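can u pls check wat happens w/ nicotinamide-adenine-dinucleotide
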Amino acid sequence: MRKYNLAIVGLGGMGNWHRELLTGQGYWNNAKLQDIENINVCGSFDIREERQQFARDNGLHAYNSFEEVLADENVDIILCATPNDVHKEIVIRSLRAGKHVVCEKPVTLNSVDLQEMIDVSKETGKLFVVHQNRRWDEDFLTVKKIYDENLLGDIFRIESRVHGSRGIPGDWRQEPEHGGGMVLDWGVHILDQALMMIDSKVKHVYASFTHVTNELVDDGFTVELTFENGLVYMLEVGTSNFINLPRWYVLGRDGTAVINDWDLSGKMVRVTDWSKNDAVPIRTAAGLTKTMAPRTEDTIKEEELPIVRADIRDFYKNVVDTIEGKAEIIVKLPQVMRVMKLMEAIFESAETHKVVDFE
Ligand code: NAD
């Protein structure tokens, strides 16, 4: 079995997440890592001395410069986990130095820069893959199964939300020049999920941004995508939400599913009998409604979610298998480009307050 040496550029929060995953430390302590044991983390480089020291303290070789990483012939793969605006330069220089590259999301800040990066990867023949890790989220895969298998009948609306109440973390994510803002940060994940789930063109895009804690970049957004097949997919990121709405809300003609949180608490409710439709009206102080009267127990069935399990280690397994010609890369560059162009349409819609035609 050949071992591949991987060097981390940018050993901040996420660079360290990769280090822990690949070395079986921290969260991954004692995890069985046989699927990725052919990747050896050979060192890291960070522009901050504090992170260089962190590397040394954790038994990692701290390269003195990025150039030193590039010049090391033993390095096979470079992981780029710097702030978003630096990805392009690091990816292109790494590919040109003959390295394979794993790049954190968002791959870069716009589609023109991404095309340049793709061109260099084609020219050099080296692997260039983006860490769209939330394709392995079990909540997403569970909703995808409900959609693929029509478990609620024809699905006509999906709502995908992530809510927090801490504003934007106090660093480069607050600054436009570093590629800050929530569309590029969280949007890129949940948009990628939407495009991986719905096999149809996106016809229209409508977006609005919030600026509750930050004037310069979006600290939250709501996006509505209308697919050619008629499905409406709503996406929302909020950073001033002190009460969270469910992570997923899925509406089909025969039922509804909800996933409340990362722990996958939730349920499906499906109609079992359409014939008994006589509602007992609900009376409130100021009125009466038959439309909003709850269904009687004998016409619906509550069911558990059909939970799909996943393992994020499959991302790196796929990287190695692709390098060795044994597999096709899962996160494909045309898919990454489609998400990037969709984010550009979202920025245009939010700026103009207009619906943007997309595909
Ligand atoms: P961070 O600020 O914690 O870490 C970034 C590190 O990069 C810092 O230590 C900084 O000193 C270093 N750095 C900056 N410029 C550099 C350069 N030119 N060369 C070397 N090091 C440099 O940020 P983070 O939260 O770790 O985010 C890093 C990247 O990971 C971002 O692109 C972010 O979007 C992504 N990310 C992905 C996920 C995910 O789930 N896929 C989660 C969090 C962050």
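The mean pLDDT is 96.
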